[in-house]
Write a structure and sequence with these properties.
The chain is mostly helical and 316 residues long. The chain is built from 17 helices and 2 strands. Strands 1-2 form a two-stranded antiparallel sheet. It is globular and about 50 Å long. The protein binds magnesium ion (MG). The site of magnesium ion has 6 residues, from helix 3 and helix 14. The site of magnesium ion (MG) has 6 residues, from helix 3 and helix 14.
């Protein structure tokens, strides 16, 4: 499979998972398959809970903000990403993580806001930096393992002061990178875990173990560890993009984000062509604070194309 098919699969797959999971946020386990019993029916992108059919939530909106900063600034410009996040947060998006909102609106500078929030609250290991990582994971893949994990940690740290969130985001970046290199991300897990900060390795080893099940989670899946563990579990225990997304949303809880992370991994793994067209057709990403812009499938593909330019150069 061409790398650009996998790169587009990661970006679009994450957005599709987010939009499908949005209407089920904070719902009970099994709600998705109760409403849509048969896979492949095609009517799943039907909205609800305040979301229009195909409307992506804050997860994808923030992923697009990161992508546009990387492309327009020609690389990682952390103050610029933070400023875009702030502009977006000030424009009353339909959904925004509690911690993310606090960090983006507390008036502190970009390099202190998250750290101070963590110092005061002592709890900052939400999945809010992991949920938006599909675009940066594609962009930094060509730069190699060290560079992509480093970038993941820095972008995560803009809103999350807890290193647990940085490490989870860095693992996701590296899993996408190896998948774009045609390696199996599940086989690569032990090697990836060896790259995790020692203070956080055991916790991630537990939720990424082959026999781990989301029912074993010790926190709500809005926390970074069970969110990543559940996404990897959904990829491991299913055999198609659609089934991975269904399994992720059926876990209940923070369904949009668990499905966004699952969709990023499964989209890279199975490639763009494996994502059902009846899911991508109604997909759209509003960008509050950015002149009423709404991205559609063609825009996301263009974005993925440009983010993955380094990959196609390496393919020669
Ligand atoms: Mg969301």
């Amino acid at each position: 499979m061409k790398r650009i098919q996998r790169a587009a699969g990661a970006v679009v797959g994450s957005a599709v998972g987010d939009a499908l999971g949005g209407p089920f946020e904070f719902g009970p386990p099994g709600a998705f398959s109760a409403r849509f019993p048969a896979p492949g029916a095609g009517s799943e992108m039907s909205g609800g809970g305040g979301w229009d059919p195909g409307e992506a939530t804050d997860d994808t909106q923030m992923a697009v903000l990161v992508a546009e900063s990387l492309l327009e600034r020609g690389g990682l410009d952390l103050p610029d990403i933070f400023a875009r996040f702030q502009r977006w947060a000030a424009s009353e998006p339909k959904d925004i993580g509690l911690q993310t909102e606090d960090v983006l609106t507390n008036g502190m500078p970009w390099n202190l806001a998250a750290a101070i929030h963590f110092q005061v609250n002592q709890r900052a290991a939400g999945n809010g930096s992991l949920m938006r990582a599909s675009t940066s994971a594609v962009h930094f893949a060509a730069a190699g393992q060290e560079a992509t994990m480093d970038a993941a940690r820095r972008i995560a740290a803009l809103t999350h002061g807890d290193r647990a969130a940085w490490e989870g985001t860095a693992i996701f970046h590296e899993l996408i990178r190896v998948t774009l290199e045609d390696a199996d991300p599940l086989t690569a897990l032990p090697d990836v875990l060896a790259l995790v900060h020692p203070d956080h390795r055991d916790r991630y080893s537990a939720v990424l173990a082959p026999d781990w099940h989301p029912e074993q989670a010790t926190e709500f899946n809005g926390a970074v560890w069970p969110c990543l563990g559940s996404a990897v579990w959904a990829l491991r225990t299913t055999a198609s993009f659609e089934d991975a997304i269904r399994a992720a949303i059926d876990l209940g809880g923070d369904t949009d984000t668990v499905a966004a992370v699952t969709g990023g991994l499964a989209g890279a793994y199975y490639g763009l062509a494996a994502i059902p067209a009846h899911w991508t057709q109604p997909l759209h990403v509003p960008l509050p604070g950015f002149d009423g812009r709404v991205l559609h499938m063609a825009d996301l593909l263009h974005l993925a194309d440009r983010l993955g330019e380094g990959l196609s150069k390496r393919q020669v």
